Input
Amino acid sequence: MIFESHAHYDDKQFDQDRDELLLSMKENGIETIINVGSDFRGSKETVKLMEKYDFIYGAIGIHPSDIEDLNEETCRWLENKAALEKVVAIGEIGLDYYWDKEKEVQQKQRYWFKWQMELAKKVNLPVIIHSRDAAEDTLTLMKGIHAEEIPGVIHCFSYSKEMAAEYVKMGYYIGIGGVVTFKNAKKLKEVAASVPLERILLETDCPYLAPEPHRGKRNSSLNLPYVAAEIARIREITPEEVIEATRKNAERLFL
Ligand code: NI
Output
């Protein structure tokens, strides 16, 4: 059975058929799902979803592109909800310099990334980290706050295999999703080949990043077998071995 470590079922792209889709997960081999908040609204919806479905757990946090959501009131909300039993991570948090090129905005991103990392440490939860076009600053900031003491995953990993090795050395997991099935994803295929199997998590980031052969369409956890099959092909093992190992990894990290 598959452990989906990163989904956004609060997204409005699921408004038409959310319940129907979620109710079909178990019969299709998806056992557990972490729904990840990326803004304040999404984090609130995440709490609702995990309360409604026994197999959904929640991660709450504010994505670097949505840090304007963070203020005294929302920080207090995060601190309070982090204590709920089914909230299993702080995320997604991190740095995204792809959209934000302004120095001042990037500085704010670092401030709130650090604040949310420290929250995770305080409430004893792992982190789900988003890092795009900010490899060096992410690693520097993490080293500066002794992030090796905070367990977590670098989700939707997009850097080199050397960088992946750095994160693994800090005790982090590497989240791999649909992009690994893309023909031109040479870097990520190298990462999937080189990272120890006991450090890989399966994820979709749905509704985004659907794997081949559904690239460009709305993604869901039902597509995870394509991701598992590609990692298995690259590593010359069976898809079942990938599914089993990544499930154990996610349970070790989150549950
Ligand atoms: Ni995401």
